[in-house]
């Protein structure tokens, strides 16, 4: 450090070496070239372990012994141990502070939005924080942003929001409120509220009141979904559940679905799985060709007449078993798809007494036959008929597949 440019201070004192009687264990000089040999050492007091600092103002020429390195001048600049007195403060070594360290940038000018009162300091918990909205915990290598957020996991981060908690190592909460990472490691909650992760390496994208309890579980969003499956996925929706003890499952969305079998998937609402390795679909609209490389199984629906009317609901299937407990005067066809081809098959069973008649009247619709059939009336007789419409349900065509099957 060169001082040749100003060998003499403004007060006329010539820089010399510090007094030899100053014990370096108890005395330290700041701006050493301006110390004077005739400056007497402070008298020992009861606290003789205190270390004294020699403070020097190069312009005024004053020298002061102090037990703290605090300087208060009437001017707006101070120079201590610098090549350019009154321009800057240079510290070689460390700065230790029990309070706040404040700094104001004069040039370049700080934009008004940045604020000049921002403070960064250690708090009593060993964290560095700024304006109570940003904290860094060196012991955990954890960064916390937002209000009332708490991190106890190593290398965990909460990037915003309020009242979020992360007890999981290497975990992340992006924002939202009252979300909790409680697994051992790697939980991720993007946002939302009251979401909870207890599984390792699990992911909740957002939503509210979603819960994951197993490893590699995913809930992308929605509300009140619960994923207890291993490496299983819930896309969105509401009140969807993947049961514990299941593996590699998925619910795309919808509501009130229950997935209880391995390698199964649900697309729709109000569906409960019954077998593993199946995809369950509520409704399916295929725009192009469909190829089946295996067999097709379809459920049948049992129907009986009520007030001489048979209701055929195509939402329940396309094959119906009709047991004749009374004569039938009309058929009520429901839930065919407008503008599409619809068809169904009908088995007609006489009961043990037989003798029941059927009038082929599709209420409000046109029904055409090549020959209008008469059902077999023998006891326990079975007839089989098929019906199809190619104008969206306005006109139906009937076919006698077989009669009096035994």
On the 0 to 100 scale, the average pLDDT is 80
End-to-end distance: 115 Å
Biggest sheet: strands side by side, in what order?
A: 4-5-6-7-9-11-13-15-17-19-21-23-24
Q: What is the total tally of β strands?
A: 32
| Residues in β-strands, percent | 25-35%
- Category by helix and strand content: mainly beta
Low-confidence sequence ranges: 1-17, 69-93, 97-121
What is the helix tally? 0
Apparent shape: rod-shaped
The main pleated sheet reads as: 13 strands, mixed
Q: Write down the Rg.
A: 43 Å
Tell me the helix content. Answer: under 10%
Any descriptors?
about 400 residues; mainly beta; rod-shaped; disordered N terminus; 32 strands; 8-stranded parallel sheet
Describe this structure in words.
- With 406 residues, the protein is an all-beta fold.
- Among the domains are: 1-86, no CATH class; 301-405.
- The protein is 0% helix and 28% strand.
- The protein has no helices and 32 strands.
- It has strands at 27-29, 52-56, 63-66, 120-122, 128-130, 134-137, 142-145, 150-151, 157-158, 165-166, 172-173, 180-181, 188-189, 196-197, 203-204, 211-212, 218-219, 226-227, 233-234, 241-242, 250-251, 258-259, 265-267, 279-281, 301-303, 309-313, 319-324, 330-334, 342-350, 366-368, 382-389, 395-405.
- Strands 4-5-6-7-9-11-13-15-17-19-21-23-24 form a 13-stranded mixed β-sheet, with no helix packed on it. An eight-stranded parallel β-sheet has the order 8-10-12-14-16-18-20-22, with no helix packed on it.
- Mean pLDDT is 80; it is low at 1-17, 69-93 and 97-121.
């Amino acid at each position: 450090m060169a001082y040749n440019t100003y060998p003499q201070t403004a007060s006329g004192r010539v820089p010399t070496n510090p007094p030899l009687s100053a014990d370096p264990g108890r005395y330290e000089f700041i701006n050493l070239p301006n110390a004077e040999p005739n400056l007497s050492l402070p008298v020992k007091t009861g606290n003789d372990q205190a270390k004294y600092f020699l403070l020097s103002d190069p312009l005024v020429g004053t020298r002061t012994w102090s037990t703290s390195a605090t300087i208060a001048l009437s001017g707006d600049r101070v120079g201590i141990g610098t090549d350019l007195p009154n321009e800057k403060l240079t510290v070689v070594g460390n700065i230790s502070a029990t309070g706040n360290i404040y700094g104001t940038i004069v040039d370049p000018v700080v934009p008004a939005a940045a604020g000049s009162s921002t403070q960064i300091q250690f708090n009593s918990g060993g964290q560095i924080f700024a304006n109570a909205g940003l904290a860094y915990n060196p012991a955990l290598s954890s960064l916390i942003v937002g209000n009332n957020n708490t991190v106890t996991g190593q290398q965990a981060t909460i990037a915003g929001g309020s009242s979020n908690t992360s007890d999981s190592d290497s975990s992340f909460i992006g924002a939202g409120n009252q979300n909790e990472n409680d697994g051992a490691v790697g939980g991720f909650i993007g946002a939302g509220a009251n979401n909870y992760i207890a599984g390792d390496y699990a992911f909740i994208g957002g939503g509210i009141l979603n819960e994951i309890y197993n490893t590699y579980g995913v809930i992308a969003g929605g509300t009140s979904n619960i994923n207890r499956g291993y490496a299983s996925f819930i896309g969105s929706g509401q009140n969807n559940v993947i049961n514990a003890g299941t593996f590699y499952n998925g619910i795309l969305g919808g509501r009130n679905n229950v997935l209880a079998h391995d390698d199964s998937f649900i697309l729709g609402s109000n569906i409960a799985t019954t077998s593993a390795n199946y995809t369950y679909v509520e409704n399916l609209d295929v725009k192009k060709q469909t190829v089946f490389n295996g067999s097709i199984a379809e459920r049948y629906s049992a129907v009986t007449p009520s007030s001489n009317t048979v209701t055929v609901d195509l939402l329940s299937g396309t094959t119906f078993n009709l047991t004749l407990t009374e004569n039938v005067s009309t058929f009520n066809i429901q839930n065919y798809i407008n503008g599409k081809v619809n068809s169904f098959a009908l088995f007609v069973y006489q009961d043990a007494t037989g003798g029941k008649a059927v009038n082929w009247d599709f209420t409000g619709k046109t029904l055409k036959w090549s020959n209008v059939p008469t059902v077999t009336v023998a006891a326990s007789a079975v007839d089989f008929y098929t019906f199809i419409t190619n104008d969206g349900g306005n006109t139906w065509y009937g076919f006698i597949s077989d009669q009096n099957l035994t």
